Fold this protein.
Amino acid sequence: MRKLIQLFIALFIVCRIEAQSVKVTFDAPSSDLIISRNIYGHFAEHLGRCIYDGFWVNDSLNVAKKDRLRLDVIDALKKIKIPLLRWPGGCFADEYHWSDGIGPRNQRPARVNSNWGMVKEDNSFGTHEFLELCTLLNCEPYIAGNVGSGTTQEMANWIEYLNYDGSSTLADLRRKNGREKPWKVSYWGVGNESWGCGGEMTPEYYSTQFKQYASFCKNYPGAPLRKIASGSNGEDYNWTEVCMKNIPNWQMWGISMHYYTVTGTWQKKGSATQFAEDEYFTALKKCLHIEDLINKHSAIMDKYDPQKKVALVVDEWGIWTDPEPGANAGILYQQNSMRDALIAASTLNIFNNHCDRVKMANLAQIVNVLQSLILTNKEKMVLTPTYYVFDFYKVHQDSKLLPVHLSSPEYKFGNESIAAINISASQDSTGNIHLTIANLDPTKKISINPSLGNLKWKKAEARVLSSAKFTDVNSFTEPEKIKPVTFNDYKVSGDQLTVNMPPMSVVVITLN
Ligand code: AHR
């Protein structure tokens, strides 16, 4: 009898949770809060098989190409409208000398990529090839200049080579190398991780370096630069404080922050595909921690820049796991699971909801490295679950944010809990409203009742990304295991909406 009563109570609780509906309200959109398209930026580094093999392939590879640029990868990225690509690193940026990568390819010097696997860098992919890639992708370039092992003169020369329309030895060299008009590159990183691989500097020393380098990064006619300071490592708030204090706002368009979701330790990060619920939960908890970082760095920035003119640029983020078994540890290559899709969705919701300060972000790295959108294996190409999240979220680019109010149910694991649901919403220039919702709970369906106030809409359409297991991946043998499908588990009654979020899912809903 006791057992029966216990069973009845348990059933009652489960039914209550299933029936419970989470109320979500939104403030009206305003033109003060625009989700910059550059939040959806990416990062291509000379690391492992990102550039060589990912974008830039041998003539003998049997895929459609322009020069040696792989068009299947480019076409897939165009579909999700990538707005921005950061290059050449990462740590590689502070050992890259741009003049190695111009001129006839067979005369370019060979170097050692001493950050990533001590592999040969033949410099066949350099400035012209990168900017051609950006043209084909229809995205803006974001170049990280070398502070660590370069000079102010070297950086100044690169900018003149790229952006000067008049006649000078460097601009004429660009013409001789095949490019008549300047590219007018705008986003310019002054170093990378200057607290670490970029030179082990203190923030005091770096901020002085920044001012010196930035003084020689000239704005050529029609090509003003937006200079981005190398920012903090995760929780290093002192770095932000010192840089914001020492560098005048007019000299810096943005300051970066890097944050990786690492489930284990830096030495033993954890597998990309073999993990149980404890690691699933920890990864999501650590991913959500980025919101605390944004809040705290933003509060420091507010002190020195109350008008929010300086952007917080999260120019490296994503999950970093151990490399796939068999992969060269020095070059980094990891698979991408349903867990990664939830990490991408939640992080992008956080960025959207903080678009007053976060104006740019770059997922690391776009092809064949950490949380990649695309994996390649010779002629084959796989779109990862993370790719589909970016496909869902592209609707937010340059749209007006609808600030969200939500008290999420908890996803509990052991003695800990995190918010099971996260959401962001926006209104695009045609008036359509887009909601992107993630349910992190691996077992519970959760009903949501978004209330859109005075915003009027007549019909809804939706897509969902989900999978049976959080370890599921798209592989070269099963490339479409996880892919978006039409989503119908929602109800519309008048202008009331109820969305039943499946466990472990990402949903995009458009109301028009
Ligand atoms: O993304 C891999 C490396 O992580 C980057 O090169 C560096 O900036 C960071 O430490």
